[in-house]
Design goal:
Order of helices and strands: HHHHEEEEEEEEH
Strand order of the largest sheet: 1-4-8-7-2
Number of strands: 8
Helix content: 25-40%
Shape: globular
Length: about 190
């Protein structure tokens, strides 16, 4: 599956502009840049009107790159992403199925062990998402990376909260608290179908 996803990724990348390549690369390799932009998107609930021209252009280019991949993709992705609950909330607040909105791009992985490790705190949970949305950025040819970038503006309902064990290829292991989300179609998705 990784090879199929990588093949599609390369096909889409050949159609991307040099500017889209540059923006996507910077976003995925410069963590402070990624954090600053995604925090801005969350604070503005995805509205880029108050962004600088440079940041708005970056958002538009990355959004277009993700959409290009999504148009070609026919596969489901089973993904995991780290999340810290908003201040003032607790896990029990999510037991009555609320709608969870991701107004920011969300970096994810196809493998739980890739987002797990000793540097996580007690307030960090793993989101479990099955979707065909987003863009695979992994490197099946050169390593075990299964990175994935989810688009902004997705909505989910909490399906289940559970604890599971994970084990990495290096023998490391641990336990994670997982929030399984079920994607809720939004009006824009329904109009495009």
């Amino acid at each position: 599956q990784m090879k199929v996803r990588s093949k599609l990724k390369r096909q889409v990348q050949t159609r991307m502009t040099a500017a889209q390549h540059r923006e996507l690369k910077q976003l995925m390799t410069d963590e402070p840049h990624f954090t600053r932009l995604t925090d801005q998107l969350s604070a503005s609930v995805g509205d880029t009107d108050g962004f600088s021209d440079r940041d708005r252009t970056t958002v538009q280019r990355v959004d277009r790159a993700i959409r290009q991949y999504e148009r070609q993709n026919e596969r489901q992705h089973h993904l995991y992403a780290n999340v810290t609950l908003p201040p003032g909330t607790k896990l029990s607040d999510y037991e009555i199925p609320p709608t969870v909105h991701l107004d920011r791009w969300t970096g994810a992985s196809h493998n739980l062990h890739e987002i797990s490790g000793a540097d996580l705190n007690d307030e960090t949970y793993a989101l479990e998402i099955t979707t065909r949305r987003g863009m695979y950025l992994g490197h099946s040819d050169s390593g075990p990376s299964t990175e994935h970038l989810l688009p902004r503006g997705m909505a989910f309902e909490v399906e289940k909260i559970y604890e599971t064990r994970w084990k990495g290829p290096d023998g490391s292991s641990g336990t994670r608290r997982v929030i399984r989300l079920r994607e809720v179609a939004n009006k824009q998705d329904e109009e495009q179908s």
